[in-house]
Design brief:
Layout: H1 3-9, E1 26-28, E2 33-35, H2 46-55, H3 83-95, H4 107-121, H5 172-175, H6 179-194, H7 226-251, H8 256-271
């Protein structure tokens, strides 16, 4: 089983807290991770925790969802011309303004919302959530500064409580592709349209990398101000769009006769 499959199918147990929010594990730069606040012992990593789950024959799923009565609806058939459009339409309106379905107006509703928020405040929302520290596990790609109970993902916020907030669904069950796969497909489509056969920006003829990439920090002297970076990004997007539109016109030129007929009709209408 690959790491991607394990991420989707397995999760360490979250039924009992190991640490309280007031005495959560702390980052130890010398140890290279989060450690026990009393013993100083390094917490197991995310991959180590998944290995323990895989090695336990009695491991149980964290959540179980069962389907109820099913409806054999055949309004949209796979492969039909309207299938993709219908799926996109339904997905859009199922997730649009999901947080605005119900307004909290009574004291009982406010109490319920407060209780739900307190419960989800310390429940892990993803493999990178800081709340894993309370269960004695380092989150995936752990970094300094994680504070359990203060995860900034939308699922923990009161206004979007329990809602993932992702408008563009990954749709693994539909196509088997992730968002990264779709981005790669779009990149290959643009390269084919522009006639680009290799990545000239990063590779030399012999396969050697031309550039070395590293994360820039705001304090780096060669990093321009934020306003300049935003304007540069906007300018690049405009140039890319113009180049892409030009490539599309070169591949599929417009119907000149149709444009001339339309212009003639407009002129006749003005004359009338």
């Amino acid at each position: 089983m690959s790491n991607q499959d394990r991420r989707l199918d397995r999760w360490p147990p979250v039924d009992e807290l190991v640490y309280e929010p007031g005495r959560a594990p702390q980052w130890d730069a010398n140890a290279g991770g989060y450690t026990d606040p009393e013993s100083g012992r390094l917490l197991p990593t995310w991959d180590d925790a998944l290995d323990l789950v895989d090695a336990d024959p009695d491991a149980q799923p964290v959540h179980v969802v069962r389907f109820g009565s099913q409806v054999d609806a055949k309004g949209v058939l796979a492969g039909s011309k309207d299938a993709d459009r219908c799926v996109g339409y339904i997905t859009k309106y199922l997730t649009k303004q999901a947080a605005d379905c119900h307004q909290v107006t009574t004291g009982r509703q406010r109490t319920h919302l407060e209780r739900l928020w307190q419960e989800l405040r310390h429940t892990p929302c993803s493999e990178r959530c800081a709340n894993w520290l309370l269960y004695g596990i380092q989150p995936k790609k752990a970094r300094p500064g994680l504070r359990p109970g203060n995860c900034q993902n939308k699922v923990h916020k009161r206004e979007t409580l329990g809602i993932g907030g992702r408008r563009v669904l990954i749709s693994r069950q539909w196509s088997g592709k992730t968002l990264a796969d779709h981005r790669a497909d779009r990149k290959e489509w643009v390269k084919a349209l522009l006639g680009v056969t290799t990545d000239h920006a990063t590779a030399r003829p012999g396969g050697e990398q031309r550039h070395a990439w590293e994360l820039a920090k705001p304090t780096d002297p060669d990093v321009p101000p934020l306003g300049h970076r935003v304007l540069r990004a906007i300018s690049e997007r405009i140039q890319w769009r113009a180049q892409l539109d030009a490539a599309k016109r070169a591949v599929d030129p417009p119907d000149v006769s149709a444009i001339s007929s339309a212009q003639s009709a407009v002129q006749e209408g003005k004359g009338a």
